[in-house]
Amino acid sequence: MKISADFTVVPDDFAKAAAAPYRNGGVPIVSFPFYIDQIEPEARYLHWAFTDPDSIPVCGFEWIHWTVANLPIDALMYDFNDSHALSIPPDFSRQLPAMIPEAVQGRNSSASKFVGRDNDPAITMRYNGPQPPDKDHDYYLHVWATKEPLPGLNQGFWLNELLHALRNCDETPDQGGIFVTGKA
């Protein structure tokens, strides 16, 4: 599997410098677009995690920005410029519940008891854009593809639940990822 994006630095609309209409409670909430190509032909479901390993020295843990599970590949549109690439469009996180209700989004680190945010699912169970407080951070988007949906994952699952479900599935998931930078 190959993951790609049209950028190496997360554009302002999806990160710290996002304009007010692209924020909720000061948090960037419009997810960035990316592409998935060279998926195993038998794969039928996508799952992903977008995290910030560089946050560990800042807050003590890897910040979870976005997780998705059980997204049927057949529900996605192919990129018109490349008939093999699946396109995840901008603002997919906010559109996903209405477009593809069987796919689920997990909690991000804004839901952590250590962060002290409210429980607004529009903030805690959707995309939260990069906002590195100390310096530029490298972020990792890890995507997996499976033949079957992962059992036991409901809206608001935690990243560890996704990883356990992937480890316990009856197949070796196809996978790929990319690093992108978020500007301080």
TrEMBL record:
Top-rank taxon, per record: Bacteria
InterPro entries xref list: PEBP (IPR008914), PEBP-like_sf (IPR036610), YbhB_YbcL/LppC-like (IPR005247)
Similarity comment: Belongs to the UPF0098 family.
Name of the protein: Phospholipid-binding protein
